[in-house]
Amino acid sequence: MNLLDNVAIELPSWAFGNSGTRFKVFGTPGTPRTVEEKIADAATVHRFTGMAPTVALHIPWDRVDDYTALAAYAADHGVALGTINSNTFQDDDYKFGSLTHVDETVRKKAIDHHLACIEIMNQTGSQDLKIWLADGTNYPGQGDIRGRQDRLAESLAAIYQHIGEGQRMVLEYKFFEPAMYMTDVPDWGTSYAQVSALGDRAKVCLDTGHHAPGTNIEFIVAQLLRLGKLGSFDFNSRFYADDDLIVGAADPFQLFRIMFEVIRGGGLGKDSDLALMLDQCHNVEAKIPGQIRSVLNVAEMTARAQLVDADALTAAQEAGDVLGANEIFMDAFYTDVRPAMAQWRADRGLPENPMRAFAESGYQDTVVAERVGGTQSSWGA
C-alpha cells in the first residue's frame, strides 16, 4: 500500500494572510481580505496537490456570523473546515496569563472563549480544538509555578467536559516566547501530563518549530505515538527560534526522520486519527506556492521514509550492525522520489509538477486584479 494515499495535510487560514516579524508585516498584492478568500486560496493548493483537503480556522481572526454557511462555502470549493484554533494571547486581559491567570474572572473569560470555539466546531463539523497558550512569566519569582499548573489543569478540565464524542482537544507546547523565563506548557512532557489527566479525547499537538536546538524531535514523535497521545502536528522549519518557515527548508533530514517514526508508529494507517497540519508564515515569499511547496516537502519525505527496508533494518539493528543499519536508513533518504511522485500525481489526474502548474494557471494574476480595496488579512484579522 502506498501510504501517500493516506496523507492529508491541513492548511492554516492565516498562512494566506500577511505576516512578518516583530518589526514589520509586509503586504502583498492579492492577499485575501476575508476568510472566504483565504479558503479559496487554500482550495487552490488542494486542487494542485490533492493532499490538502481541510482548512484550519483561527478564532477570532476568522470569525463570521454563520459558520454553517462558511462550511458550505468551503465544500463548494472542494475542501472542508478543520481544526479550530483558539486565541488567548492578544487581549489586554491576558497580559499575565489566560487559563493560568490568578484572577478567576480572567480565567473564566478564557474558558468561555474555548467553549465558544467548541460551538463553532459543532457548526462546522470540525474534529479538533487546538489550544496554544502564551501563558508564562519573564522573571524568577514573578509567578507561582506550581499554582499556575494547578489553575491550568482546572481550566483545561472545565473546557474538556464540553468536548463531544467525535471531537478532540489538542494541547500545543512551546519552550519559550513570549514568556522568557518560564512557559506554562513548555514541553511535550507537560502537555502529556495535562492531557493524560483529562481523558482519551485529549492529546498533544507537536509543533516542529517549538523545540530547543538539538532536540531529538523524532524521539518525541515515537514516544507520543507509543503512548497513544500524539494528536496532531504543526509542521514548519526553524533555524534559530520559532521561525515558522516552510517545512523541510531548514533540515530535510529531520523531516525524513520524523516521517519515518510516524510510519513506524502507525500514524499513517487507515485507522489513525493523527492530524498533519502546516503552521507557517510566508513573510517574503508568495503565499500560495509557499503552501504548495510545503505540502510537496512533507509528501516527498513521506515517500522517502516509506522506502526504508524495515525488515533489513530490524535485522541489522538486532545484529548490532551499526553501519549497516545506518546505511539502510540513509539509502532511503538519498533516493530521488520525485519521478515516482510525479507519476503518482499523474495517475490521480493531478499535475505532475504542481508548482509549475500553479504558476501557469494565472490564478495569482486573477486574485491580484480582483482583490483591490478593502483590508488585507493579517495577524489579528
From TrEMBL:
Domain of life: Bacteria
Annotated Pfam families: AP_endonuc_2
Stretches assigned to the Xylose isomerase-like TIM barrel domain: 65-220
GO biological process: L-lyxose metabolic process; rhamnose catabolic process
Plastid is among the record's keywords: no
Documented EC number(s): 5.3.1.14
Record key words, sorted: Isomerase, Manganese, Metal-binding
Enzyme category, top tier: isomerase
Record's keyword annotation contains Transmembrane helix: no
Single GO molecular function: L-rhamnose isomerase activity
PANTHER family: L-RHAMNOSE ISOMERASE
Name of this chain's protein: L-rhamnose isomerase
Organism of provenance: Mycobacterium yunnanensis
Gene giving rise to this polypeptide: rhaI
